[in-house]
Amino acid sequence: MASEREITLGDVGRVLWRGRWTIVATTVIAALAAFAITFASDTTYTATSRVYLGQATTMMGNLASTPGTNPLTAATMLQGDHVVGAVSEATGLTPGTVRARTDVSVPRAPGTVVTNQPAIASIAATMADRDAAVRLANAYARAALGTASTGYEAVSVTLEKQVRDLYAEEVRLQALAGQQPSPDTLTQLADLRELLAVSELQLARVRQIEAPAIVTLATGASSSASTSNRVRTAIVGGVIGLLLGLVIALATRGGIRRAAEPA
């Protein structure tokens, strides 16, 4: 029967054309409603700071991956109790408020799978007060820097002490060799100098890698009540209304079936 023929895209198009005013109405109403909501809701401010997490190394000066520098786990580590507690102490906010008002992300470079690559943490703080948002974002950045610097400084300080101790031992053996140039003393001095050269190379490798640092501190904050944000919200509302209008038009009882029937 003609009424049972296969429905085509043309049939769907005719249904949508018949319901065009419904689609237009839902789109406009949803956009206006979303725009109005931006005036009714409380204004918030978002400030963002960024921290370079550094590059972890082994005591041999080789690149390494740690939970605090791996982009896959660094964000979780930076939201741990130690960091949140430090931010809470610096700002006077409760740990729960700090967690609720901040968002930490450590994006990985597109297309990379290496987990020991340098990473930058982005910290966004959202508060009802602009200055409070800036303070929270910057306090979090400093706490994150302190955490990220711990491992780097531990390796660097250890290697520096090792080099100093070897230099002191070299001076002692040189003086001893000058007084008693025995084969054992000369052998010890040669072995020590070889070890010193290796240690200096390890230290040089570590120093070549840039230490963790604050990339940017927040100086201002974006407002949820800004014109751009309100327009963006209205556009999203309009898209939702458009989809709703399409669904209503297509769901009209018998709409597509009637369109498929011959005129």
Any overview of this molecule?
By secondary structure, the chain is of the alpha+beta class. It has a domain at 1-42 and 227-263. 61% of the residues lie in helices and 10% in strands. The chain contains nine helices and five strands, in the order ααβαααββααββαα. Strands 1, 2, 3, 4 and 5 form a five-stranded antiparallel β-sheet that branches. α2 (20-40) packs antiparallel against α8 and α4 (81-91) crosses α5 (95-101). It is elongated and about 105 Å long. The two termini are 14 Å apart. The mean pLDDT is 81.
β-strand amount: 5-15%
Main β-sheet, in a few words? 5 strands, antiparallel
According to DSSP, the number of beta strands is: 5
Point out poorly predicted stretches.
none
Distance from first to last alpha carbon: 14 Å
Average pLDDT for all residues = 81
What percent of the residues sit in helical stretches (DSSP H or I)? 55-70%
H/E topology pattern:
HHEHHHEEHHEEHH
Radius of gyration: 32 Å
The global form is: elongated
Structural class by SSE content: alpha+beta
Count every helix, treating DSSP H or I runs of 4 or more residues as helices.
9
